[in-house]
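lol ok so funny story. i was supposed to be doing the assay writeup but got distracted and ended up predicting the structure for this chain instead. priorities right. anyway since i did it might as well share w the group, maybe its usefull for someone
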Amino acid sequence: MQSFFQATGRLYYQALLASIQSFTRAWILIPVLLAFALGLVLVTSLIAPLGMIGGFILGALNALVIGSTLSLTEQAVLGARRVGWPDILPSMGQYFWDVISVGFMVWFPLLFLEMGLQTNPYQPLIGTAVFFLIFVLLNPVPEVIYQSRSGSALDVVRESYEFVVENWIEWFLPVAIAFGPFGLTFFFQMSSQAGRRGGLDFWHLITLPFSVLSEWLSLLGMSSDMSFIVVLGLTPIVTVFMLFFRGHLFAALHRSSRRQRMFQSRTL
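and the output, tada:
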């Protein structure tokens, strides 16, 4: 057990250092994410009257910005050079169809499930359980897309499932630490939001750090007005750093088994 804790602590330490290095090379993702968010707000207001057609347009736009974000994150995590403004335009369209296919694979069954549960008195409970399951099993899907580059959406889902089964403790321990003080209600609320699109929703990517930071500052006793200002400024920074940390942690877990990491910790 001691070797496990040593190996896991060393794993997080190395991922943290690598994330800091990536952040210094690719801090440009902060204004990029802000621009994406403002663009989505503008487009949403323009196409709101279009109904279902507007929903499809927003879905495609979400896939576009998520794919671009993953492409830029890939350069920061797996590359060794600085990410600059010239890299933004080529990133547009990257992983677009991967995001679309995985999103459709998740959305279509959920649509039928919600339709079938409309008259079921246990609909909220069943829905929460399903979204939680999706949140857990598909949590590393973004990293699988840009690091493993599996073929079909089914391959992405399968590899995500296998990764979670193999590394669920190391992968979700940071999540448990971040969410732990706020109880199960907050956790299930966040997991339900993430589960609706298999972790490939741009707004959830932004609102998750915003919500967690808000809860932490409230727990520390900061006033709501001051907390809102601080969280507003920190959210894009934390979001980018979270993407880098997840990427480096996934890469480290993907290239070694738990037994290998424990053995290495004993030999150091």
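Residues 224-254 form the longest helix (31 residues). The chain has a mean pLDDT of 88.
back to the writeup now i swear
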